[in-house]
């Protein structure tokens, strides 16, 4: 690729009436602005221009990588050999819920899929592919579905406003809302209603993961993997347990039998 770029540039240069040796042409080419990332096999270029709005991110990355090596000199070399995470995290894309940071885990510890409002549905090939790879290949032991209070996706699904394309995605949460509409309508406070739907939406995703043929097959062949529901409070930085811990088809059946009124009142 370098040769092609150089040749093209040299042709352009000589076509303009210059007839210098290749050495001199190459020397002048050093001042010709060529795409800095060519060829891609050279790997990443060193820096953005210093006034680029993202240059600070590369600087922070360099500082971070150095600090990691200072603590563990072969950390990245070991990571390059492969990953063996024990946890699959299915969470919201919200920037305030970064799984590794809130769990105090390092790169390599968590396999992750995040989307708007941590929705797991059996039509999402992206999410299902992540689950299948995590269970069948990585053999994760724990799958965590994590909702979070203050979720914009859940709040949007509670309302009637239209947001365009994302309305299709929010329909999944609106369906959950409809399943539990009586209990939700009984809650007078809007924030409380939103917090309840955050929990119900996470519960539904837990059930949908557990109901998937991927988990069914894993349990049937005796693989130990469980599905747990958590909720994160962005006001405190704390994770809480939602009471859904499913590690077998029997557990799944028990949780599926729980009626909506029981979820709101705690009474059968
Ligand atoms: Zn969210």
From TrEMBL:
Zn(2+) binds at residues 92, 94, 148, 151. SUPFAM superfamilies: beta-carbonic anhydrase, cab (SSF53056). Keywords: Lyase, Metal-binding, Zinc. Its EC number is 4.2.1.1. Its cofactor is Zn(2+). It comes from the Eukaryota. GO terms for biological process: carbon utilization. Signal peptide: none annotated. SMART domains: Pro_CA. One of its GO terms (molecular function) is carbonate dehydratase activity. Binds 1 zinc ion per subunit. It holds the Pfam family Pro_CA. It catalyses: hydrogencarbonate + H(+) = CO2 + H2O. Belongs to the beta-class carbonic anhydrase family. Reversible hydration of carbon dioxide. This is Carbonic anhydrase.
